[in-house]
Write a structure and sequence with these properties.
Blueprint: E1 2-5, H1 10-21, E2 29-32, E3 53-56, E4 59-61, H2 64-72, H3 85-112, H4 121-140, H5 151-166, H6 172-175, H7 177-186, H8 190-193
Parallel strand pairs: 1-2
Antiparallel strand pairs: 1-3, 3-4
Helix pairs in contact: 1-2, 1-5, 3-4, 3-5
């Protein structure tokens, strides 16, 4: 399998952590892609020209929730996607919440690299509100992150890691101590350490 990715993409990081945690990382070839380069050929693998993309024997898979669930189907260990019941819906809810935080963060990131005269501050503030709303919910539910490793906990860790990478001025740990405590423990996992990116 080949993973088309960028080292700074939090969605690709989610896939890479999943690969480590399921013992599949040695079966995946990492292929760096420059998403800003139209000549990269990314659109031939994903018509949306987005990463990550996992090339499989039956064709490309995208995006990160689909890729992660596919990888989770390939191993015999504890599943990151619980099969049924409240555990499943809790994991999927956390994944959706953390992915939503990342969606808002990436929209700010894309807006902020435009020339200043074209940036729309009310739009940026709206996305910041979504990030803070997600962090509020994550702080209140931080106890849910303890215990079993799931796609929800992985995605939450990647979301917080992206804030550390691109939004250092947010200083989220000061306002969200329960979340900070949980993240500190998760960040010691080798899968997290091995997928760290530099700004």
């Amino acid at each position: 399998m080949k993973l088309l990715y960028s080292s700074t993409s939090p969605y690709a990081r989610k896939v890479r952590i999943t690969a480590f945690e399921t013992g599949l990382h040695d079966r995946i070839e990492l292929v760096p892609i420059d998403t800003t380069n139209p000549a990269s050929g990314l659109s031939a693998h994903n018509p949306l020209s987005k990463i990550p993309v996992l090339e499989t024997e039956f064709g490309p898979l995208y995006d990160s929730p689909v890729i992660c669930e596919y990888l989770d189907s390939l191993h015999d260990g504890p599943k990151l996607f619980p099969a049924a019941g409240s555990a499943r819906w809790n994991a999927l809810r956390w994944q959706a919440l953390a992915d939503g935080l990342l969606d808002a963060a990436l929209l700010i990131r894309h807006e902020s690299i435009r020339p200043v005269e074209y940036q729309f501050e009310p739009y940026i503030e709206k996305q910041k509100g979504k990030i803070l709303g997600a962090l509020d919910a994550m702080e209140k539910g931080a106890a849910d992150l303890e215990g079993r490793l799931t796609i929800g906990t992985i995605t939450a860790a990647c979301a917080l890691g992206y804030l550390d990478l691109r939004f250092t001025d947010l200083a989220w740990r000061e306002s969200y101590p329960n979340l900070a405590k949980w993240h500190k423990a998760f960040a010691a996992r080798s899968s997290y350490v091995d997928t760290l990116a530099k700004a």
